[in-house]
Amino acid sequence: MRLSTVILPIHRWSEGQKIWRRAEELGFHAAYTYDHLSWRSFRDEPWFGAVPTLTAAAAVTERIRIGTMVTSPNFRHPVTLAKDLMSVDDVSDGRLTVGVGAGGTGFDATALGQEAWTPRERADRFGEFVPLLDRLLTDEVTTAEGRFYSAHEARMVPGCVQRPRVPLYVAATGPRGLRLAAEHGQGWISYGDPRGAGDVPADRCPAVIAEQVGRLADACAAAGRDPGGLEKVLLQGSTQERPLDSLEAFVDYAGRYREIGVTEIVVHWPVPGSVFDTDPAVFEEIAAEGLARLG
Prior knowledge:
alpha/beta, eight-stranded parallel barrel, two-stranded antiparallel ribbon, 8 helices, 16% strand
């Protein structure tokens, strides 16, 4: 099992770079950031772009993987996104992981002036978005005509440092998304029950993830793929569970999810006065010792 973190893009870089460097010093496997234009309670607070943030983070770190958790079609087009991702992979010397999701109904959904898409349209768009992004990141030249997204002789030269392309981690819980993860992903992401992760009692949360892991295995079987070949990533912070209250709480939490097949846990870097307000000393203790205590 690996332990990673999400660093919200809320800091001016004079301070933000210190956090990314500290994440590397603490030994996190990866540091991700959200790819939103604004987000929930942070809407009227500082919030910077994900791609410039990851580019800057790549330049001030050496070993830690970096990535999106997650990027979506809400305001991204596969052609321009692929070019940006190829560039970040180059700056980071092959340390980029790309988390992708279908998007939601938050502020991003209407920021470009469009009406918020229905769940069906989001799924339809995601069904085109992921395969085209896969092709663009893999092939030197891509031409494709879709209902929502097209590419005409789109060049990706020199291509990704990682071959055949940067890894895609697909956030999904429904059948169509799980199929995309099985067919295109190197990893799968969940944060709990999409119908209301915060409403599920803490002691029932592992059962929710276990059921999703089972359905992911079914999707892999249908695609002729070994589910063991996909990383299974749990994004912490949306449920009633409180694994960051103490080292012991985290060890219990991580152990339960390791038993059901989760291979990477992602925790939020502390943000004072927010839903991610965690004791920094406890957080660093978890980063340093949490997984080692699992044995």
